[in-house]
Write a structure and sequence with these properties.
252 residues; elongated; mainly alpha
Length: 252
């Protein structure tokens, strides 16, 4: 099911959905008649997948670092800014590599071959299923955070402030879902055009990048609100649960 593949692409922390198109290799073999050009296409695909695989390993290290920064009560805004700059520079690099690879792949198709292949792509993706799956996943994490907060927070006034900020963050992250899925659908639609420019790819990919940045900054801002309204003991008790949000692929 294409919606499941798209879910993995977006929330597994990936960039491109092109390689997750169902039966892609089969379609290439079907519509690209020249064996030599098939070979060139598959070489580019393999190199791009390896590049993304390296990034996924690096991303795991970034998630670990982000969790360490979040847990330390004295982490400064400057430290977070330095982290986000490094992370999104690396993410943008793998994004640009993937886009260049997709354009290079398209070079080895004739316009007719490309048209026939993209006509075989799924036209419709079940957006509601994608959103329901995402909403369910984040709801579990936020429920855990609120339960832990209720257990560890002592002052009623501070508890109310923190629970309200957590509810706000939950609503905001949930609200990003229509944006990110729509941009990814537009990405799939854009790559169907044989003549699409690199600038069009970049514009859509940058939109997805900006959404990730917006969510991460809201995560950091909410952490700051929690810090201002907790004692050291309360902080230690609830932040491990809060950190679980970083496992959501949409944030990093």
């Amino acid at each position: 099911m294409i919606w499941v593949l798209l879910y993995l692409a977006i929330f597994g922390g990936g960039h491109t959905t092109f390689y997750l198109t169902p039966a892609l290799k089969k379609n290439i073999k079907t519509y690209v008649v020249d064996k030599n050009r098939q070979k060139e296409i598959f070489q580019i695909m393999d190199a791009s997948k390896k590049n993304q695989k390296v990034f996924f390993k690096t991303r795991k290290k970034y998630i670990k670092e982000a969790k360490q920064l979040t847990l330390k009560r004295n982490t400064t805004k400057e430290q977070f800014n330095a982290f986000t700059t490094r992370y999104f520079t690396d993410r943008e690099a793998v994004q640009d590599y993937s886009i260049d690879a997709e354009l290079a792949i398209k070079h080895w198709f004739t316009p007719s071959e490309w048209g026939k292949m993209v006509d075989a792509f799924p036209e419709k993706v079940e957006k509601d299923k994608l959103r329901k799956k995402y909403d369910k996943d984040i709801a579990k994490k936020f429920k855990r955070i609120k339960n832990v907060s209720e257990k560890h927070l002592v002052e009623d006034k501070n508890k109310a402030t923190i629970l309200a900020s957590i509810d706000t963050l939950h609503a905001e992250i949930k609200g990003f879902m229509p944006r990110v899925t729509e941009v990814n659908y537009q990405y799939l639609k854009t790559l169907r055009d044989y003549e699409v420019s690199r600038e069009a790819y970049i514009q859509l990919a940058d939109s997805i990048l900006q959404i990730r940045m917006d969510i991460l900054y809201r995560f950091i801002d909410t952490r700051s609100q929690i810090r201002q309204n907790t004692s050291d003991k309360e902080w230690k008790g609830m932040m491990k649960a809060y950190n679980k949000l970083l496992d959501l692929g949409l944030i990093l």
